[in-house]
Design a protein that fits this description.
The chain contains 3 helices and no strands. It has 75 residues and is mainly alpha-helical. The chain has one domain.
């Protein structure tokens, strides 16, 4: 729904106690917006990052390295 990102940011990231798994699960379980919720939370694995997330982190790091190299003055 429209404005969902803003509500998630406010209710979960700013107000929720997400510094530990139990708090994160509680914040997600309590969240509702116009009938929308996060679904079946017991199925979620909070113990590890997904391969897609790790590849995204590597791609971001590579992009930063390329940017830094392009900004370096020629020697």
């Amino acid at each position: 729904p429209r404005g969902l990102g803003r509500e998630v940011t406010s209710e979960i990231f700013e107000q929720g106690d997400i510094s530990h798994e139990a708090g994160a699960r509680a914040a997600l379980a309590d969240f509702r917006s116009e009938g929308w919720d996060f679904g079946d939370l017991p199925e979620w694995d909070f113990s590890d990052y997904t391969p897609g997330f790790l590849w995204s982190c590597l791609a971001i790091r590579h992009g930063i390295d390329l940017w830094d190299a392009s900004r370096k003055p020629a020697e």
